[in-house]
Amino acid sequence: AGIGKCVAMDLARRNARTILACRSRERGQAAVEEIRAATGNPAVVLRLLDTGSLASVRAFASAVLREEPRLDVLVNNAGATGLPFAITSEGLEQTFSTNYLGPFLLTNLLLG
């Protein structure tokens, strides 16, 4: 939704292979279908990613590096505000992990 969806729509309009990294399979798949329909670009795909989980970040990065021949652009757009204080299963504060640690790790893993 929001800025991320607009950026994905623009990239798809430019005929780019576009990977939507989403926490929710249902919302992500709905966005993929909407973007494909609006742009005519079939190369819009969904991959699940929760930046609040470093294990999820590692799995996502591993799959992208294994499946994609190249990566030209990374847009780190996800973030959360107003979350109640919580500690992740990895022992990290949830908001900090989601907004900072996850995107930082993802960027570094994809740099290659």
From TrEMBL:
<keyword id="KW-0560">Oxidoreductase</keyword>
<comment type="similarity">
    <text>Belongs to the short-chain dehydrogenases/reductases (SDR) family.</text>
</comment>
<dbReference type="InterPro" id="IPR036291">
    <property type="entry name" value="NAD(P)-bd_dom_sf"/>
</dbReference>
<dbReference type="Pfam" id="PF00106">
    <property type="entry name" value="adh_short"/>
</dbReference>
<dbReference type="InterPro" id="IPR002347">
    <property type="entry name" value="SDR_fam"/>
</dbReference>
<protein>
    <submittedName>
        <fullName>DHR13 reductase</fullName>
    </submittedName>
</protein>
<dbReference type="GO" id="GO:0016491">
    <property type="term" value="F:oxidoreductase activity"/>
</dbReference>
